[in-house]
Structures are given as structure tokens and as C-alpha cells.
Amino acid sequence: MTTTRTRHPGRARRTAAVLAAVVGLALLAGCDPTDTAPSPTPTASETPSPTAAPPAAQCDDATTSYAPDAGTSVTPGSTMAAIQDRGSLVVGVSADTLLMGSRNPLTGQIEGFDIDVLHEISRALFGDPDRLQFRVITSGQRLDVLTGGQVDLVARTFTMNCDRWQQIAFSAEYLRSGQKVLVTRDSTATGIDDLAGQRVCAPKGTTTLDRLSQHPDITAVAADTHTGCLALFQQGKVDAITGDDTVLAGFVAQDPYAKVVGDAFSAEPYGIGVPAANVDMVRFVNAVLDQAKTDGTWTALYDRWLGALGPAPAPPTSVYGRTP
Amino acid sequence: MTTLVSPGSATGRTGPAPVTPAVAAAAAPGDPAPASHGLRAALRRTPGKLRVAGVLVVVAALVAGAAGLAAGLAQAAALDAARADTAQLIGVREVRNDLVTADAAATNAFLVGGLEPVEQRVRYSTAIAEASQGLAGLAGSNSSDADLLGTATAGLTTYTGLVEQARANNRQGFPVGAAYLDQASSVLRSEVLPALDGLVADNEHRVDGSFAAVSQVLWVLALCVLALVVLVVVQVWLARRTHRRLNAGLVVATVVLVVATVGGAVVLGRAGVRADDVRDGPYARAVAVSQALSLATDAKSMESFTLIKRGSGQAFEETFVAETDQAAQVLDGAPAPAGDLGQQLATWVGAHAQIRALDDAGDWDGAVALAVDPQGEPRIAFDALTAAATSSVDEDVTATQDALGDAGGAVVLLGWLALLAGVAAAVLGWRGIGRRLEEYR
């Protein structure tokens, strides 16, 4: 699975062959967890989360989104026009996931890879990257704020999958992450299979927590946020944390006594969440993402925030073809 | 009195008159016993009866004096207990206020960022120091609170540790600091404050008991009234038996006892009334204002959390509204002049609305700037409220303690005077009977 990133050599040239390969991968990547984990996560301290509750959806197009149709131009009466009238884009983000979306205590500003992607969307909408109104949400709130119409977009390490597509829409994939484990510096574990009998933390309402249930010999511990897991880890209340490598990289940056081990054992395609009805908004966001992927902005953002994970790979290929 | 005198009229008959029923009942309960033949013979003669009457008078006077002393000491003890229990209760409330103040400062400083304002830091440290001292003081003053105080102290240690961890991470720019602050806040609200609330409830119970005991003491004076009845009955019997209207010694003894009883009733009653006044006045106000201050300060933490949670703080805002509403109600129900505080509370809640308006309109930075600005309207209004509330509580606590202490001193003095009066009445009464007895020698 570590090879997933290199399996996308294409530069957004949408030939039929690439499309077929990517769709095949999507089947593997996006829907993998739900295929094998159809029931809610039976963790000790967890109530069924909205993401895990509905019957597992079967689909082979978790990363397939709506193709852009009008570029970044805004037509009157569209969702984007309404947002322009309002004057700001309301976005659901994390304020404590270092590197992806976290509040910088020095400046008080929320910053990270997810946040910069949103700044690009704001720039396209308003000609000003800072017309963002942040709503800080937990992982478990991501679907609710979208279905409840409280935000225009959610950019919060949001894995695209079939279950979620039933309630909301996603943009095209904008980052490919994979689930790994974080352990103490002196641990001999080299992967999740070495953590039998140990307490492993993951945030509520995430695919990460769902996937832990595939390891019945591991004691799953749920926290409200990723960073809540780090606090528990530092207090010795859990032995390890599992999460996306993007998130874990942020933890290692905060704690020199932690290390990330093993290969990614899942592929987590990140998409920007949009209320299901706002198909025009999805198309608009995709136009912005395509632009960033091709003009080098994406690579610059990756280097700025996720350079610790290695040199920037090629941006994930946008997959289109979904119809409302 | 008339009913007690009327059976005495039977003694007006000639012949070997039976003893007055009242006296007989007290002096010779074992009348038919064969062993008391000598005593019965002696009692048939007047000098024997006089001696019994003398003993009765002495015992009654001494009992009255002892009862007065007991009543005085018991009421002093009750007042003392009320004083200690109110002090303990207010002490617990002050610790609670210190802790929510510390938490409000910590959360507010967090809004500012890694470089927390010195003034906020000082506020936090001072509040924590006062809370720790307060807890230590409370532990020494009432052992029945030890368990809950232990829970609170242990929780406080955990709390301060987590806050320091949050600060250290925050200072380095690590967002995990926010997770520690969350944990700290949850320890405070799930462990420490409930323990203190339990202590408040226990102590309120004790205070009520102590105040009730202050008034219950009065019935002890019934013994004095009984003694007076004995004296009067003896005098009536003596007047009929000796055909002299008045016995100087007994009359003076009666007057002394009447004065002592009435005086005692007045002093003890007034102390009871005074204790009730304290309970319904300064004490009730101190408790109410202290509770309102606690609620308002916690609401201040909630205000910070609405901003820290940035856009997801609706639940915190609801808590803010609930707590400030409750504080207003508590102040409304408190004895005047707590009403001024209600006005100050309303001013602060109004200023808080400005912060919410900015945040709700999307200007989070503006809302934070206003919330942390020491010269901003919300902070000035809040500081004014806490300063006024704190000094109001301090004044009322002092007034409560002084009033209960003064009353306690007065009733102790009264108790000893009552004993003195009882002894004096006993001596006078014995001498009065002695005069009549000498006439038979």
C-alpha cells in the first residue's frame, strides 16, 4: 500500500486507461474498510457514530466526483453566488491537527495543508484568500455540520468513502494518506500487528477507528480528536495511536519521544466535504483543485506542510464521471 | 396559679391536716412505705413540714440557677457552632470561586496564544494559591468534611498539573496544549467542583441545624418557671399555716428568680432573634452573592470556550446563558442591597453580547480581541462585578461572624448571672423558712 502514491504517475490527463486504473484503485482503497467492517465499531467506550451506523454502502467510485463545468466562474443564482453575497465562506476545520489544520498559538491563526486548500478556494471565489469563516469541529461532527447545512465546506482529513457519499458529496481527491501507527520511541513494534493486547487510540467517528475493529486483540480507545489521543499517549493511558500518516507526522513534530512505524495499511483519499445538494459547489471546488494541482500550488503546499513525509509526490489524479 | 392555690384551701380545715398535695407529691412519694414511719411522724408536725419546704425551696432555686447556666452555655455553644459552620460554608464557597476564577483566567489566557499575558498568569496563580490555602484551612476546621476535601485537593493537584502541561505545550506552539486544557477543565468540572458542591450542601445542612439549636435553648427556661411555681406554692402554704402574709426571705428569693427568669428569657430570646436576623440578613446575602459570583465566573470560562471552540461553541454559550440567568435569579432572591450586583451582572452580560455579536458575524479575531482586552468593556464590566461581589461577601461574612460572636459572649455572661441568682435565691429562701422554724424552738 505504500506504493499507492507512486501508482499515480499521471498528470491529470484523463485517458480511459488511467481512469480505469484509478477507479479500480478506488474500489480497493475507498471501499476497503466498509467491505470488511460492515457493523459499527464495537469499542468499549464508543457509541455508534453516524459514519458507522448506516448499512455499509457498496460502490466502486468513492473517489469519483462531479466534473467542473464552468471553471471558477460564478453563475448568478448558484451556491457560489449566494456565498459571495454573504461575504465569507463558512468552513469546518480542525484547530488541533498540526500540519493539516491547527491553531498557531503565536499568531492565533488556524493553519495547515487543509487550511491552505481552503484559502485557494476563497481566493477563487472572492479574489481574497482570507474570506474564510472557520468553524472548528471534531472528527465526529464532520457529517453533521454538512447535512445540517451549517457550513459550506469541510476540509478536515476527510476520507472519501461510499458510506459518506450517501449523505454528502466530496470534491475530487486532493491528498492521499494512509493509516499507520505511532508508538513510543523505545517500542519494538514495527506495525499494527505487533500491538496485540495493547491500548490503541483513535478519534471517534473516523474510518481509522472503524478499521481498528479488524484487530480484535487490540483494545481500542476513542478520543474526541486526534490530539486528544496524543494527550492520552503522553500520559501513558494508551500505548499507541493509529491514524493517517499526515496526522501522525504532526504528532511526531510535537513529541520527540514518539515515532511512526510500519507501512501504511490502508489508503485514505482525502476529499473536501460539501453538502450533497450543492453539486455546483463541488464542480467549482474541483476546478480550483485541478488548477492548484497543475500550476504547482499543490506541490508547494505539500512541501510547506508535509515535507516531513518525504518529497512531494505527484498530486492525486482527479476522477470525474459522477452524475447527480 | 389559681388552680394551684385552690387545693391548698383544704389545709384550712382543723385537725391533723394532710400535707398540701403539691408538696406531698414532691416530698414524700414513698408515703405508705413501712420504713418511713419515723419520717411520717415527723412530717405530721409543723417543724418537719417546714424543713421539707425549706429543702424544696433550696432545690428549686438551685435547679433554676443551673438551668439558666445550662441554657446560656448551650446557646453560646449553638451560636459558636453557627459561627464555625457559616465560616466553613463561606470558606468552601470561596475556594470554589477561587478555582473557577483560576480556570477562567487560564482559558482566557489560552485565547491570547502562546505568550500569555502576565496579568492573566498572576490572576491564575493567585487564585490557585488562595484555593490551596483555603482547602488546607477547611481541612483543619471540620473533620467530617475530610473525605470530600481530600477528593477536591487531589483533583486540584491533577488540574494544576494539566494546566501547566497545556501551558508548556502552548508555549512551544504545540496544539496538543489545547487537549490538555480540555482535560484540565473536565477534571475541574467533573471531580473538584462536585466535591466542593457536596461540601456546600453538607455545611448548609449543619448551619441550619446550628441556627435551629439557638432558638431551641429557650425551653430550658421552663425549669425556672417550675421553680417559681414551687416557691409560690410554699409561700401560700406558709401564709395559711403561720397566719403571716409575707415571708421576707421567700419573697426576695422569688423576686430574684423572677428577675433572673425574665431577664434570661429576654437575653436568650434576643440572641435567638439576632441569630435569625443574621441568618436571614448578612448570612443569606453572603451565600447568595457568593453563589452568584461562582456562577458568573464559570460563565466567564464558558465565554472563553465559545471562542476557543471557534464556531462550535453553541453548547458553551447555552451554559453561559443558563448560568448567568441563574446568577441573576439568586441575586434577585437575596436580601437587599444585593440588587446593585444584579445591575452589574446585567451590564456584564450585555457586554458579553458584543463578543457574541462579533463572533456570530464571522469576526472571530475581533471577538477574541474584545474578550481578552483588559480595557475592553466586557472585561471592565466583569472585573467590576467580581470586585463588588467579593467585597459584599467579605462585609457580610464579617458582619455574620461579629454578630454571632457578640451574641455568644452575652449569653455566657447571662448563664453565670443566672446561676448566681439561683444560689442567692436558695440562700434567701432557706433563711426565710429558718425564721419560721426558729419560732418552734
UniProtKB/TrEMBL annotation, chain A:
Residues 1-29 form the signal peptide. It comes from the Bacteria. Keywords: Signal, Transport. One of its GO terms (biological process) is amino acid transport. InterPro entries: Bact_solute-bind_prot3, Solute-binding_3/MltF_N. GO terms for cellular component: extracellular region; outer membrane-bounded periplasmic space. Gene3D superfamilies: Periplasmic binding protein-like II (3.40.190.10). Pfam families: SBP_bac_3. Residues 33-57 have a biased composition (Low complexity). Belongs to the bacterial solute-binding protein 3 family. This is Glutamine-binding protein GlnH.
From TrEMBL, chain B:
Residues 1-36 are annotated as: Disordered. This is Secreted protein. The chain crosses the membrane at residues 50-74, 217-238, 250-273, 410-433. Residues 1-12 have a biased composition (Polar residues). Residues 14-35 have a biased composition (Low complexity). Keywords: Membrane, Transmembrane, Transmembrane helix. It comes from Cellulomonas chitinilytica.
